[in-house]
Design a protein that fits this description.
Layout lengths: L1 E13 L10 E17 L5 E3 L4 E3 L8 H14 L7 E7 L9 H16 L6 H16 L5 H7 L4 E3 L6 E2 L7 E6 L6 H14 L2 H21 L3 H17 L5 H12 L4 E5 L6 E6 L2 H13 L4 E6 L3
Parallel strand pairs: 3-5
Antiparallel strand pairs: 1-2, 2-5, 2-6, 3-4, 6-7, 8-10, 8-11, 9-10
Length: 308
């Protein structure tokens, strides 16, 4: 028997960095990138293969402890043996360290595959616990937004310390995502913003402005106002530049997207590399923007329709 589990990546649409200071953020599943886990009976002991490791689970290096936990905790919740003779093969199109939720997605795919293999129903509560505890190992003190987004089907509105709310998406537009090819450094960016926040009075107003734009963005998503959403995306990027979390690679792709007809464009995630996003009215315009970004040096581009 072979069992398969999948998960999408995720994109932060609005609210990066400001979310740390009590402002809202909007994140959404991004199905253009995915992780697939395949479980089959094989060998003498529990083993795994993926892009970064191939071998026995109990011999995995500590750096991959979050994946080991997702496997072990899933087996515990299932009531399966701790070292069964099965093999887990993981394949991914989610680039690592780009703010696209790869660690949460792999935990989700693995849990779904293992529960399917053992023919056990996987409750939302079990899936949340498996993914969120794995995220704690990977990131220390995660907000829960990655775990919620990659296990769900639609955008979410998040404020630190409050219940995560679904967003009733109704937007006839396309999102283009482009990878600068440069690994982001979220922790460094967050630390630098914190120092800036303590030292300059205007920083609080920039953070507040990003929060205000995020509230507006939620309304535009719900009421199919793509042009207005594009405007607040542009404004948010300016504030993120002021916070020092953009860089030349991101700014260049943002400028090219706008020059090619994007309704709006901004960085997504922690910044200092990683990915940017652009909003397009039509599939054809999205294709033109993606081609322009690729021609300008983006290592990868993806497009997703936002209407459904």
């Amino acid at each position: 028997m072979v069992a398969i589990g999948t998960s999408t990546g995720k994109i932060i649409l609005m609210g990066e960095h400001a979310v740390v200071y009590g402002q809202p953020a909007i994140a959404m599943p991004f199905s253009a990138v995915q992780i697939t886990a395949e479980v089959r009976k094989e060998g003498q002991a529990l083993s795994v293969s993926c892009d970064f490791y191939q071998g026995l689970v109990h011999e995995m290096p500590k750096i991959w402890e979050s994946l080991k936990h997702a496997i072990r905790f899933s087996l515990y919740r299932i009531g399966a043996p701790t070292d069964p003779a099965i093999h887990i093969e993981i394949s991914s199109t989610i680039p690592a360290e780009r703010g696209m939720g790869s660690s949460a997605a792999v935990a989700t795919a693995v849990a779904r595959a293992l529960f399917s293999f053992y023919q056990r129903p996987l409750s939302d509560e079990d899936l949340w616990d498996i993914v969120q505890t794995s995220e704690k190992i990977a990131h220390g003190n995660p907000s829960g937004i990655d775990a919620t987004t990659v296990t769900g089907t639609g955008p979410v509105f998040f404020i630190k310390g409050q219940a995560i709310e679904p967003v009733d998406l109704s937007l006839d537009a396309y999102l283009v995502v482009a990878d600068t090819g440069k690994t982001g450094n979220t922790l460094e960016a967050i630390t630098d913003v914190a120092l800036l926040y303590q030292g300059r009075s205007e920083v609080e107003s920039w953070v507040q402005a990003i929060g205000d734009l995020t509230y507006r963005a939620r309304d535009y998503l719900v009421h199919n106002q793509a042009a207005l959403l594009g405007q607040v995306m542009n404004q948010a990027h300016t504030h993120l530049q002021n916070l020092g979390v953009s860089d030349e690679s991101l700014d260049r792709l943002v400028e090219i997207a706008r020059a090619t007809g994007a309704l709006g464009a901004k960085l997504t995630g922690g910044g200092r590399g990683g990915c940017m996003i652009a909003l397009a009215n039509t599939k054809e315009e999205a294709k033109e923007i993606a081609q322009a970004l690729a021609g300008a040096g983006a290592s990868q581009t993806w497009t997703q329709y936002l209407g459904e």
